[in-house]
Amino acid sequence: KEIFIATRNSGKVKEFEAFFQERGLQVKSLLDLPDEIDVVEDGKTFEDNAIKKAETIGKRIGMPVLADDSGLEVDALQGAPGIYSARFAGPKKDDGENNQKLLRELENVRDEDRTARFVCALAIFFPNGKVQTVRGTCEGKIGYELMGAHGFGYDPLFKIPNSEQTMAQLEKHEKNKISHRAKALLALADHWDDWAAT
Ligand code: ITT
Q: Which residues form the active site (predicted)?
């Protein structure tokens, strides 16, 4: 059995694989499809964008599709970069440039004011047209330097509460116990039987 994830982000794909393989499902994603299907992420919330990705791809391929819209909310930046996390430093910029921009913006912010959270909204599209969403969050603080080589995105700057470690210093299976994505996936698993039956 397969589950299709409407993402091109290989960091996300690896985390979904860890979750679904344990449950006997094989993960397919946009990275496995040759043609370029473009989804414009112009929603106002993580949920809006996740729904748009799941629906657009789901209607094309006619099977259940899961989509993830996620990002980092930094309190000292009034919730930025938020839904713009992937393109914080600009449309063609990479994770490294996004992290450098975040460090610059927080240059004069002291440790106690560097609180932040990761947010993950998942949308699941069913071939009967129904869409459902769940959300998971993970609280932390933005560090002063990049630490760790695991994970992706802002993980090397995201310090876990009551720990000296960043998310990128955790092994994948450890991140997958505490992350925003893991929490959203557990919420999805709670609802799955009900939603799949309707
Ligand atoms: P898809 O739309 O194809 O799924 P994307 O990378 O564009 O890929 P988003 O629009 O949801 O996905 O942007 C999410 C960004 O938020 C991502 O590029 C990271 O910079 C950041 N992010 C999300 N989850 C993260 C995590 O677990 N660890 C670190 N950064 C994360």
A: 69 (proton acceptor)
Residue 8 assigned as binding residue: yes
**Given the residues 35, 69, 113, 194, the one annotated as active site:** 69
Helix (H) or strand (E) holding 60: helix 46-61
- Listed in sequence order, the residues at least 6 apart from 115 whose beta carbon sits closer than 8 Å to its beta carbon are 74, 75, 76, 139, 140, 141
Specify the pLDDT at position 22: 93
User: Closest residue (by CA) to atom 4 of ligand 1?
Assistant: 7
Cβ(160) to ligand 1 under 6 A?
Answer: no
CATH number of 2-197: 3.90.950.10
48 vs 183: CA distance, rounded Å = 19
> Residue of the nearest CA to atom 21 in ligand 1?
71
Q: How remote is the CA of residue 56 from the centroid of ligand 1, in Å? A: 18
* Lowest pLDDT segment from 81-85, 98-102, 111-115, 161-165: 161-165
Residue 62: the pLDDT is 87
Rounded to two decimals, the pTM is: 0.97
